[in-house]
Design goal:
The chain is of the alpha+beta class. Among the domains are: 2-72, TATA-Binding Protein; 103-219, Orthogonal Bundle (Endonuclease III, domain 1), CATH 1.10.340.30. Helices cover 46% and strands 11% of the residues. It has helices at residues 11-16, 55-65, 72-77, 84-93, 103-112, 118-132, 150-154, 158-162, 169-181, 187-190, 195-202, 210-219, 231-237, 253-266, and strands spanning 2-5, 23-25, 30-35, 38-45, 48-51, 135-137, 143-145. It has a 5-stranded antiparallel beta sheet with strand order 1-5-4-3-2. Helix 5 runs antiparallel to helix 12. The protein is globular and about 55 Å long.
């Protein structure tokens, strides 16, 4: 176990925030996740976070994954004090961070996310990994499923993908996997592009529109200016009849979007 004091991080908020789909709660304060081919368990006691890995692995993989070099306290302090809505959103979801996820997995999972809800997306992703991902062994000696490679998904039939409850998204994923395998879109190059150019390239994939492309830019390429707009964010934007102040949050509007998205899902008026 490697333990570190980390401010502005709440594992529960991150797991519910709709940006990652292979993170699950396994105890009162403990979460398990699979990313970059690794299995990790994380336990939180206030700002004290314990990781089931060595310090070397933490520095190599998880520091970047949890975006620990970004000052989220500064971002929260920059929210307009007179903006009651965003102030409430920050109070509710102030432990969210933008995860820096693996690009291929993010492309596929956000194609799956279209017109879908978070619990169902997680089930579809689990089925996909179980059916087509390689197996590995965690630190307890238990098996877990890796996310399937582009080659694995390009090599199966659309029917096989539909069997994972993907519905109309199955051909999108199949064609997207083939585009990666034949070099139509170079995933490595995407990491070198700015937000506008990366979004344009991502939209070449089947089933990737503007919103999904912005999600991929934000959650995998770490373009903090990306601002995905779904129905929840449309509801938020309507609260600003004079227009949302994008200029105030230039360079990190994507983080503001996450606070708003979380508030639209879990704000007091939405709780049963």
């Amino acid at each position: 176990m490697f333990t570190k004091e980390i401010p502005d991080l709440d594992l529960g908020q991150i797991s519910r925030s709709g940006q990652c789909f292979r993170m699950r709660q396994i105890g009162e304060d403990t979460y398990a996740l699979i990313a970059f081919g690794r299995y990790l368990e994380v336990r939180q006691e206030g700002e004290r976070i314990s990781f089931s890995c060595t310090e070397e692995e933490f520095e190599k993989i998880w520091r970047g994954y949890f975006d620990l070099d970004t000052d989220y306290g500064r971002i929260k302090q920059a929210v307009d004090p007179a903006d009651a809505y965003l102030q409430a959103a920050v109070r509710l979801g102030g432990g969210i961070r933008i995860l820096q996820q693996e690009l291929w997995e993010t492309i596929v999972t956000f194609i799956i996310s279209q017109r879908n809800n978070i619990p169902r997306i997680k089930k579809c992703v689990d089925m996909l990994c179980r059916a087509f991902g390689k197996k590995d062994v965690d630190f307890r000696g238990e098996m877990y499923d890796l996310f399937p490679t582009p080659e694995a998904l390009a090599g199966v039939s659309e029917k096989d993908l539909r069997d994972c409850n993907l519905g109309y998204r199955a051909p999108y994923i199949h064609k997207t996997a083939r585009m990666v395998c034949d070099g139509t879109v170079d995933l490595g190059q995407l990491h070198t592009l700015d937000h506008g150019a990366a979004r344009q390239q991502l939209r070449r994939f089947c089933g990737v529109g503007e919103k999904v492309a912005d999600c991929i830019c934000l959650f995998a390429l770490h373009h903090m200016e990306a601002f995905p707009v779904d129905t929840h964010i449309q509801d938020m934007l309507r609260k600003y009849p004079g227009g949302f102040p994008f200029e105030r949050y230039e360079g990190y509007a994507g983080m503001i979007q996450q606070y708003a998205f979380y508030y639209e899902l879990f704000g007091e008026r939405n709780l049963v």
